[in-house]
Amino acid sequence: MCGVVAVLRRRSTVLPPDPRELEAAVDAALAALAAGPAGLADAAAGLEALDGRLRGPAGVRVLAIHPELAGRLEDAMAAARSAIAGLEADLDAHRLPLTGAELEAANAAIVRLKDAVWAIASDRVRAAREVMALAAGPDGAAGASAAIGAAGPDGVVGDGALEAYWAIQVALSAIDRLEVRGRDSAGIHLLVTGHGLDPSDPEIAGRGGDPLFRSGSVRLVPDAAGGGPALAFVYKAAAEIGELGDNVRAVRAAVAGDGLLRRALSSPDSEVTVVGHTRWASVGLISEANAHPLNSEETNHEAPYVAAALNGDVDNHVELRDAEGLAIPAEITTDAKVIPMLVARRMVEGTGAAEAFRHTVATFEGSVAIAANAAADPGALLLALRGSGQALYIGLADDAFVVASEPYGVVEETPRYLRMDGEATAGQVVVLHRAGAGTLAGLERLAYDGAALPVADDEITVAEITTRDVDRAGYPHFLLKEVSEAPESFRKTLRGKVTEVGGQLTVTLGEETLPASVRKALGVGAYRRVLVIGQGTAAVAGQILAATLTSVLPAGAGLTVAALPASELSGFGLDDDMADTLVIAISQSGTTTDTNRTVDLVRARGAAVLAVVNRRNSDLVEKADGVLYTSDGRDVEMSVASTKAFYAQVAAGFLLSLAIAKEIRAGQSAANGPAGGGQVRPPSAPASRPSATEERRFGNDAAAARLEHDLLAGLRDLPSALEEVLAARPEIAAAAWAHAPSRRHWAVVG
């Protein structure tokens, strides 16, 4: 797995917002937040609108011109975080008696607030500072002012440099997030047109001699699309051993320290197209020479200039190299090198850049995701996707396309994106045009055979995550971060669902979790079996839920409870009529294909479905009759090993089990008590009178209440116990160093 990034923007006409209006919006949002739960939705809407006004180069401009505004926003967001934390503490301590739909509305608004607060402080203000730092270089603020210019009296500026550095910052920020896919090397390629520099400038010539196109290399590209010579800059970092963030810091420092780039971008006519990459080497050594992007240069052949980056593998790259007689320096051993070279070869034959690209990628065997940029058409980005295991997301931002291999590489600037599909049409090619940047009008999609594939509006997806979800929060890796977040995730799952009545704790689930139809069916004994399904870790959580439910069911419930993978139920366990079945589907994302497909199948056969899920508005939520959200309904887990999501699913399983048992017990009491004449008895109970065992169970409501209280008290204590374990990390580490095997021995058996 690697990560492709690309940014293409058109010149913006958006003026910087009025700082006084921004401050007024902040004040209004904080006032709404101070009103407590009643003001949460208004506060969230206000901060979301403020975030929107601060996006893009216009937001960078106002924060650069008014540094005091940036400080004011940071202080306001700190105050908002404090107020949100206070509200959550009140909810967890039951000082705000919200349950059911009111609680879900509050949780949803708090999530929106956290997203907006994070975006303003950690995306908008940070981006402005990073753009200014890139533009400033060694000269500090004076250098930034010289590079991006000053605002005129009407606020309109010739800010080609600011927009260029904004595009570079967006690419570097995306690479930083995508490094979880691979980090042994990284690089960005900048194709700059309209720079106005003299082609005979000695610095250009002095940086053009490296045949391996390593970091800091510059190429003068003659006659870029008839608009004069372009300049191609590349910045790379490569290291077999290192930490997340190292490569981006090195590339960022190289960009900020490049005076030639600063001069090139200071022209009012300058435009830049950015292609970037972070690598997990599968073909070729880890080196700057093999780091992507690579260009089309050959050692003995003149060809049009093209640069490209690759995810996946061109399995037949050796055959293509030999068949075409490509002259590649011996030090460059990555398969990605053939991509720009072959595109250039097709262009020599008289084919336009986009068509040459399509013809080239159609010859590749293997699963690939490719981004390329040709000097012959510098205002176009060329994208290709084919096979499984790769992805490209095209973000539609204001006046800009932002491309990345994951949604979390796009969402800092826009939640709206188009996902390319490399399988449905045996490969797709997309050409993005600067003139229509950020709009569907600027996007041309083709099949590998050249057939047009128009994009419909309903293909645009709105992301359900933000950069807050994928921030490591200072941890060295996501696994440690998410283990450390487990106690809070567990608490949020219990929030508002455990109440105290007469000194006894009881579970309280609203209509949105246990709808009236399901409660009634449980009470009258309409269900004969409960099936708990999931895949992977969720299936393990399902086993715990099934065991818990079995242990708390009253006698005579007449229920068979079983847990199994969703794929097994859909393959072997379906009946034509499943109206007597309650299915509980567990999923972290709500998008697990096997689970969702099985839910469709059982619903079509009459089964009722309850979902335990962590994603609002996900597919599973839409399919279920009732939903119990884990954590706050949007607690994304990035590490491969499930941690906080699993613990939250276990907590949710206990809550749902106790609630189901209580509904059954209430139905039994109604059917067997003085007022139960018209009620239906549990299917397994005799029609005349209950057995001695049933009498003991029917009459043992106090014991059942004590059991419920004890279980819920234990659940409420668990987060603190988890925190105690986490606090003992130094002692655990010392024990591991002392007792874990110091060596690993491998044996190969023939």
Descriptive account of the structure:
α16 (537-552) runs parallel beside α20. Residues 150-158 and 675-699 have low confidence and may be disordered. It is built from 23 helices and 22 strands. α18 links the parallel β20 (581-587) and β21. The strands form four sheets. Strands 3-4-2-5-1-11-10-12-15 form a nine-stranded antiparallel β-sheet. It starts with a strand and ends in an 11-residue tail after the last helix. With 750 residues, the chain is an alpha+beta fold.
Number of helices: 23
Q: What structural category arises from helix and sheet content?
A: alpha+beta
Helix content percent band = 40-55%
Q: pLDDT below 50 for ≥5 consecutive residues: which ranges?
A: 150-158, 675-699
Strand content: 15-25%
Shape descriptor reads globular
Largest sheet: 9 strands, antiparallel
Report the C-alpha radius of gyration, rounded. 30 Å
Give the terminus-to-terminus CA distance: 31 Å
Strand count: 22
Mean pLDDT: 89
In the sheet with the most strands, the strands line up as 3-4-2-5-1-11-10-12-15
A few lines on this structure:
43% of the residues lie in helices and 17% in strands. By secondary structure, the chain is α+β, with helices and mostly antiparallel strands.
